[in-house]
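Work Package 3 (structural annotation) set out to generate three-dimensional models for the target panel prioritized at the project kickoff. During this period the team completed the workflow that converts sequence records into discrete structure tokens, so that structures can be stored uniformly alongside our sequence database. As a representative example, we reproduce one entry of 1456 residues exactly as it appears in the project archive.
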Amino acid sequence: WCTLNSPVCSLAVHRDHLVAATLDGVLRFMKHANLAEPDELEQIAEIPLVGDAAETELEVTTMAYNTHYTELCLVTSEATMYQIVLRDPHMTELRQNPVGEYGGQKYDEPSFASVNMVAEYHCGAVTGMVGLPTGEHFATCGEDGTLRIWGAREKALVHKRQFSSQQTALAVSTTANMLALGSSEGVLRLLAIMDGGAKESPVVFRCRLHAKGAVKLLAFAPSGLFVASMGEDGCLFIVATGMALSNRAAGAMYFTAEVPEVVRCMTWDAFDKVTGGQVECDGPLLFSTEDAGLISFQPPLVDVTVGRNMELSSSDIFMRRMRLEAPLDCMLTLPRTLSTEDHPTELLALAADKQLKRFVLPQDTSGWGGATSREREPEYRVMACNKRGAALCISANSKYVLTGATDGVLAVRSASDWTGATVEDRLLNDSYLGGITHAALGGTQDNYVMCGGADGTLFLLTAAGMSLADQYFPNSTEPTEDVDVEAYDDPAEMTVVEVSQQTRVMVGGGASAQNAPAMATKADFEELKKRFDVIMDQNEAAPLMEKLEYKEFVIDYELKEKLEAEGAKEVVLLQADINRQNLEMAMVSGRIKVECWDMMVTQARFLTSLKTGQELHNFPIRKKPKLHLVAQKVMFLRGVEQLEAAYHKAEELANAPPPEAPPPGEEAIVDEEKEEEEKEEEEVGTACDQLIYDYQTTICPMQKRSQSILLRLALQERKEAYNVKLEALRQQKLHTMDRVSDLNERVVEIANELGLVGKDYPRVSNLELDAKENEASVLEVRDEDVPFDKYVNPVELAARVKKEKEDEERRKLEAGQDVGERALKHMMGGKLESNKADGKMTEMLMPEWMAGDRANMNEDQLKQIKEWELKKKQFDEEMDKYKKTLDAELKKLRADAKEAVVTFDESVATFYLTTQMKVQSSLYEIEMQIINLGISLEQQLESDEVNEKAMADELESLKTVKGKSATLLAEFSKELNLYKDMHEQLLADDKAMEKSFKRDFAACEEFVDLLYRMFKRRAKGKPDTEEKEKEREREEVEAVKMAARQRRRRRGSVSEMDHPVGMRRMSSDFDMDDKPVELSEPQRRKELYDIFHSMGEAGEGMPNDAFTGAVHSKDLAHGTGKLVIEPLTEGDKPEECPREWWERMLEVREQKIQSEAEGHRVGNVLKEMTRYHTKIFDGDEKTNKRVELLLRQLSAFREARLRNMYDLDIPLHVKQGQVEVPDMSLLQDAVFLHRSAVEEENEVIKRHGGDKLVTLTAIKDFKKGIYDVQWLNVKYEMDMVDLTNTTRELQLLRMTKELQVIMKNGSESNVNSREAQMLEARVEHNKKLHEKRAKDLVGRGRKINRILQDRQAQNDEIQGQIYEIGSHVAEQLRIRQGAGGVNAKPPGIPPEKKMRSLVTHRKLMDISRAQGQEMLLLREELERLRLRTFPSFVEKRPTGNPDDLSYGGINRKIAA
């Protein structure tokens, strides 16, 4: 724990310490690791974010470390972001210092961290933005209640001012050098711009104008003398600015509420020049309203008539209106001078239809037209943005236009050439958060652009090409006292109108005169309130008939009217808001409809089964004209390619020997497989499938592109074919629903006939289409979709009832004119069946006289009673028979309806399994192929091409370096050999000089040795021993041998190096030191010069050459630096040595010393040349190794690329019993075999399989013969049993007289002749009845045919009349079209009438079908009656094998 001086608002944790941000704007660092005292945190440092933490509060909303814990980022509640860079993240040194200091420095100057303010934004949307007159500063305001001045050159916030309420509008006047600022509480402030914006702007005027709502729009007059303020309450105020050149004090002049609609934007007609620093007259105010109207209002500025409420008199209001195509979101008038005042005003605007438009406003009043005039077309228009426009600016020279929209795009275009000029745009603000809300131009040459968004972010950009015509310096404003230092925007504050009213009431009296009337009025008011409460209580206690309504107690009618007016105005505003929301939703829905509905060739549609609930769907298809154009070209080229391949294949087949015929069994198997494949292709395939490449041939990128296009086309064709099949199934469903509906109608009719109305009877429920099956239902809004009841006023309700009555009468009238209905009435009495009586089961009632006593009746009455009873019996039989027929028909209708529903549901299930699943599988396969082709193309054309090109370029550069290094090595080797020869010659001369010394001084025998020692003496120091000399010589020999070995190794082969080959070569595989050093020719010459001329004397050569210094240090280390020669004096001369020999020795010694010095110098140069030769040789070797390694990598890369090109993805169609793949991981090591090898293996398998099939066939035939023999044995046994039984029956047969007669005569006697005569008579009677009924039916049929012929003749006549009338109508239409008439098409047949005609036609078809069925039943009854006249014999059922051709023959003979 730790006690701090201020509340903690945010925390951040480090491994070693804890950071706490407190409300006083201080960051406190506290140690929390390895605590000596675990109960208390140790504060080790703090950083203040504000200057005076004791007086300023700064809340840090959030802060966090970066991933390396070296930087701390924090954000404050004022939308300011700070970056704190920690130089010592662990603060190891900081912990050792006393608390409060770090290295002798205190907290206000932290050396362990640096504090940087990264950015500062508005908290909330930017509601206003203007460029200040000097062009070096911008002013912005926002919902956070701040006014901020930004420096364009500094690219930072200059100063900020916080107000108590949200600021909603901002305007600037270059003439008055003022800012106008409007707040959400209706307060207007005028601020003076000091020093071009570099100093804080004081408030020179403040007042509350609008009582309800915020200040919505602000606009300065061109003269700067006035400012217009439009509020959300619909009031327009004109306020004097009180600038120095005017004689009018600052303050509100008047207001008007005559602007009829909600205003979207406002501007004041502007002038470009001023005369004497002041514009002589200001133009009109222009308003754009929500109803796409443009209003011009000329505010009176002198001799103004103002009412008692500061409201402008109606006589002084002059407004002109016109209609536009769409409301304007932003607008401004193009500058014009006073010399061109008569020139029409040109208006530049961003409209709600996202177009930038340019209007030329008419000068006369008649040109405006009014609110009901025709829409005015703009002079120019261009599409400016993708969403609603929000900002519009124009440069000072009127050459460039700046637009900003809610999609976050800021665009600059030419103001003169809209169509041909290019548009420079940039996406800045987030469109989901509201995009750009305001933008402004600034700079001395309009070279700064600033924009702000709804999320509070600001962008400052530099622009080029928008130069200013001339420089304008605004009028200077004297510093004034700030009248708004501590002012608070209170909603209860009195407006300027209320202050004016109060001032007028209080004029003429002092304080006493003020208090007395007020107190008296207050007392009267209290007394009146008490009396009113008493009356209200009495009214509540009064009887119901005497009680008054509340509206009868209204005594302040003026307040009532005022409240009603306010309510009406709120209703208008609400309606406007609702209309705007409806327009926005209509616009969005229209765009969605265009993109997701109108652009679709086939919309999404569903199909559900009737009972099972199974659901099918089609495939939506979008219009793709570009794909079809490209696909046509690809298909044509692919067709040509296939023709060429077929031609070459035909040539090969013609020249090749004939193939061998397959075995008999195998040919049948192959044919069956081909038939199955062709059948599957016909089910899901399309015409485009014939053009698709085979998997094995799709290798090159061009083929893959063509394959991708062909697959996309095949994908679309498969979807179209599937949609056609699904539409056919949908038509089948409609047909099934119609059939079930007709069956239900017949069921209802039968139920009425049977008297089952109101009871349960077998009936299938009516079927209807599901809501999802109507694809157009998504575009319709039904009443049940609205969650609340729609309000209908009485006028609309009466109109709706009247319309329903008219529609009902019209339907009745059309029903009477229906030809089909009238034909049905004429033929069948309006019924589908010729039912008896009234269509219901009737009873035959007995007359009343028959119920009397039969004893009192005569014979005729008794006879009539018997006849009635006979008729009653016949009637009851017929009714029973008819009822049974109706019951049977009712059951059949129900069965037919259920069968139709079940059949359709089975069709849906079959369609899902056989068609939809296959189509979806093929579509998924094609989409996977397209994806694989895209991946392969990207790999081939982008990754592989780039890598191969990079490797080839590097190889070429290495070859160039190799050539240069080889040339350099060859040249230097020549020079090295020359120096070697020179050095060897010098050594040989030196040895020869030593040999010649003894020979030349041989005459001086006694002094030869002494002279030779003097001849060899060189340095004063200790001379080198022979071992050191030999060692030095040995090193030189080793250096020469090393150079020779390197030369031999260079000529030999380079050892192979193992290096992994991958698809991409990484630069980190090689060291930077391995790269060869390439020396230019001047560098090589310079290095040789240094070698040749730096070894002569110590310290010679180039002073900055590191190579030379290395040589000196090396020679000095070996004692081979500059030779130190000891001079010989006379004291060194041996005694008695002749002078001439001594001098001669000195001369020879001097020559020997010079020769040794030259040899020493050349030897040193040779050593350095050998070292340099080794250096360039090593570089050449490295280059060779690098080239060889790169060649191996490039070869391996190309092999891998070729392997990947032929490494094809082949889909596997898994079918049960054919291909079983338990684990796909087993295919990772699969090898792609050639087709010939697979076919050869298949030939062997098929041959062995055919042999096995022949064996199995022979076994099957042998077993079949055994089964036939067993079957015959069983048959013969059964025949034996049958014969035995027959013999037993014949033996037991009783012999009667009739049987004897029959056996004697061979035929029946006349025993049954009477019965036969009766049967023949009955048959004859039935024949006559049948002929009579047949004649009646034939007559009825002829009558129906005549009626049909008459109706057909009438129909033909009517059709001719229709054709003749249609020709007349077409002629009239052509005449009207030629005369410029309206191209109106004649109305078609109403859908209701067409539906009734179809239903009538269907009913007639059912009638004819029912009549045919009735005739069939009559024929069957006739046949049954005819068969009753013949005797029937019982035939015994045959026994035996049914497969035998003689089955039952013996028994039939016996029975006969």
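The first strand starts at residue 8 and ends at 13.
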